[in-house]
Amino acid sequence: MPEIRKDPVFGRWVIMASERGLRPNEFLAAGEEAGYACPFCAGNENLTPPTLYSLPGKDGWRLRVVSNKYPALVPAGSPDGRREGLYTSMDALGVHEVVVETPEHGRPLEELPDEAVSDVVKTFALRVKEIKKDPRIKHVLIFKNHGRNAGASLLHPHSQIIAMPMAPLRVTQELDGAAAYHKERGTCVYCDMAAEELSFKKRVVAENSAFLAVTPYASCFSFEILILPKKHLSHFEDLPEAEAAALAGVLKAAISKLAVSLPDLSYNLIVHTMPVQEAEAPHYHWHIEITPKLTRVAGFEWGTGFYINTVKPEEAAEILNSGKKYKI
Amino acid sequence: MPEIRKDPVFGRWVIMASERGLRPNEFLAAGEEAGYACPFCAGNENLTPPTLYSLPGKDGWRLRVVSNKYPALVPAGSPDGRREGLYTSMDALGVHEVVVETPEHGRPLEELPDEAVSDVVKTFALRVKEIKKDPRIKHVLIFKNHGRNAGASLLHPHSQIIAMPMAPLRVTQELDGAAAYHKERGTCVYCDMAAEELSFKKRVVAENSAFLAVTPYASCFSFEILILPKKHLSHFEDLPEAEAAALAGVLKAAISKLAVSLPDLSYNLIVHTMPVQEAEAPHYHWHIEITPKLTRVAGFEWGTGFYINTVKPEEAAEILNSGKKYKI
User: Which residues of A201-242 form beta strands (DSSP E)?
Assistant: First the structure.
């Protein structure tokens, strides 16, 4: 059984999950061509836990949601802490699901039809609404690891949803930062950023009626992209269904530009959203962060929380918008 | 000229350093066997900036300190912020030095003679004392990236020293966490941890009169090691010279155990210490963190500040102490 332990200085949580060490890794094994049966391909549904949700398609389904076979968190136990001498631990209570975005093994998200990307976005919102019915669940993280350098272990296009019994440290830090900004200026920092970026223009990489994609001013990673909804909304799962297509459009455009300019693209995609049991708030605005992984995070970053970026975001936007290839 | 930018939500600093993108990378180029002239080998001193400090040896020197040829921060400019619309930036003022630990290219730190490891430790303290004479410098980070997976770009054994004009976020978070613990219990969290680990025993991997090496209770990374001084001291650079040999002994023992159990070892080593212009404090106690990099940090960790570790620290200590090889 996995267990969660708390760092006594930082208040940072760590999931101790020995079982996850057993999961297959296509990249580590025989490289990306490893000829083993992919659990996410059509016809191999028996290799995963049962389907939790799916959308019909010509292979029987066009999108499937299943529980993660090697979960970091499991839907059992109590959200209460236990003392172990100086330290605190708790049950690794939560939910860990996988969204298989397409039955096609080699077709990345940005190459799927627009409607399929809309389906992925709508499914994310639907699953969060389902999961948050359990009052023990305080936060739900939606994320995607694409490619070896981004920590993916399987090649087949998929995203993950992890629900947990507390708001994690980075989420509370982000909420605190946004609340401090709101207290000082009376406005939402994300609304202000959207306005500033639309007027500055040089960091915009995609835009439509409802969304904006920019290379953020203080990007930690080269070619990092931030997707901002133009309308203020705290919870991602409250996305109006009519806006799913617009979000899918900006998402596809942004990832496509990364795929053109960056060879062998690896990235992490993270949906930043309000903890699920909290109310809509004037200071916090959901958004998506896409961080390509060209280099490794090293000691300096880990020791300071300071980042070194070798490509200014204005240059990154110019490269992405021109369709030029970037030579690492 | 590099520039520092501040994230408007997290308060996180990012160094924009285009020049660092030009530095050579032995690992990326033709692999570790790349036959180019190593700038850190004896005889190639003309390939680095001038020597700032050295200790004599049979090759002319046995340890050398030079400025980093591709610095993240440079000793020029002002520590004052500038407004850019919504955002804040400042000059990338600071110091970036490299400590070449040995003239021998292929001899890692843990295989050097005890006195050579003591020399490295004493040199770290000496350089910090020199650098902190500049009152614009608020924090000095000493770190080491060893191996490709830890973000090293050169194979030759070396460490780095980066001095900066502010205490970075992770350092202030650590100080705040330690201060909160001290306020609640009246004791130093690191002193308490040392006592708890010595009594629990199962996470101890090395110990001598003055230092203790343990696999910490809430390790973020598998086989992570924490080196704690037994005596309370806030500033690493105040290490009594008589204790350098004891620190070197525990450091060598800890890294040697990692090298035996983990094939193709990559790790980051970070000295956590008090910002240099601050006074000794009862709540903060310097320490060293060694984090082997067996897997990559992926979207979940980046999105939450939550970590997933597949090897419990008690198991990690047992493997390291038995000399068993760990199969990833």
Answer: 204-207, 211-214, 225-229
